[in-house]
Every structure is written in C-alpha cells, then in structure tokens.
Amino acid sequence: MTVGSLPGFVAWVTKRTQARCRILHQICNRCGVSHSNARRGTVGAVDAREWDARYSGSELVWGLAPNRFVAAELADLPPGRALDLACGEGRNAIWLASRGWTAVGVDFSTAAIERARRLAADARVSERVTFTVGDVVRGDGLGAGFDAVVVAYLQLGASARRVALRRAAEALAPGGTLLVVAHDARNLTEGVGGPKDVSVLYTPEEVAGDLADVGGLTVLKAERVRRPVATPDGERDAIDTLVLARRAG
Q1: 6-247 falls under which CATH superfamily?
Q2: What is the secondary structure of 124-152 as a DSSP string?
Q3: CA-based, 20 to 30 A from 192: which of 19, 51, 229, 237?
C-alpha cells in the first residue's frame, strides 16, 4: 500500500471501515448523533468531555480514509499549508500530509488529538502534520496563511457557525481554498443518519451567506451533494452541504 496514493489509501481502509460504518449507523440513529464530528450549539467543556469518552474507545470512531469530498476537491491542488478544523482523529489532515502538505489539525477533544498524533505516526507523516487542542469558535490554534482550510462536519448553531466559518476564511493565504462540508437540513427528511436537530444542520445558502462579505473571498460552489452510507438495510444516500471558496491571490 502506498500511503500517498488516494486509491491505495482508500483500499487499505475499506474493509476495516465498512463493518464499523454499519455499526455506527445503528448507534447514531438510536442516539441522534452524526457519523461525523457533529457538535451541538456552542462548544463547551461538557461537550469536550463527552467526545473525549467516545474517542477513548479501542476502535476508531470515523475510520482512516479521508472524507470523499475533501479528497475530490483538494486532490488536484499543489501541496502547501493546510488547516483542518474540528479534525477529530485527523483523517483529512493525515491524508493531506501523505500527499506532501504541511498540515495542522485542531479539535476540542484531547482524546481525539492524542489519537490523531498516533495515527500520524503510524502513517509516517508526523513530521508534516501537527495536531493541537483548541476551540475553533474562539479561534484557538488557527493561525493564518493557509493554502487550504477544511471544515468538515462541524455542526453548530447559526451564530457559532458564522463565527467559525468566518475565522476559517480569514485563516486563508492569498489564493487559498476553503472547503466546508456538513450535514444538510434536507438530510432530516430525504437522507439518512446525521443529527436530528435542524438548528445545527446547514444549507448551501446559509453557508454562502455567512461568507458573503469576507473580504477577497469568492464562493465557487454552494450545493447539495449525496454521500453513500452503508446501513443494516443496504446502501443509502446522506445529503450534505458543500461550499468551496477561494481567496483572491
């Protein structure tokens, strides 16, 4: 297996993740929690403790492969500096590092960050990726001058979402790319899995609106996308919001 190759990387983890996804689907549907880094409302100590408990288990929570939309949208970009916000176990940051990027991952769960560091070491990319504990709404650990910023499944209420996404955009270098992927509001009625609280679900229009007046930022895509999900009853589609933006160079 070649870690830097997307097909090889995905093939390496597919067998491990398929069974886990089926199990997670059952668990998440019972508890109303997403199969991603879903966060409710504002970030706080209680939430962080809850996620620490989940990430402290023996099995990976989200798997090793990068999110399919992160891989599709960023694969052709030349390597640079990347920031992965609400990175969880670090799968997107580790994938980017395996492709030559220098990556930073930030998450409010200490257990998630500790696991991400171990996974980076296993993938032999520790020298190219740094993981840090921080609150992305407050802007902890964000820095600036990034060629790509990823915000994947950071499910927040409207006011916290706006703050976090604008901070993400402001962390871009000239010419940098912002990718936002999140559970969409239509997923409640037309999709599968994900949070059941509509107040933390996104729409392309809302995300684009949050970013509309960020200086020098142009929204290139704002759309709904379908993501196949393995369930006990077979494969179904979840519905996500995807927004791609670029800062003027």
Answers
A1: Vaccinia Virus protein VP39 (3.40.50.150)
A2: T-GGGEEEEE--TTTTTT--S-EEEEEEE
A3: 51
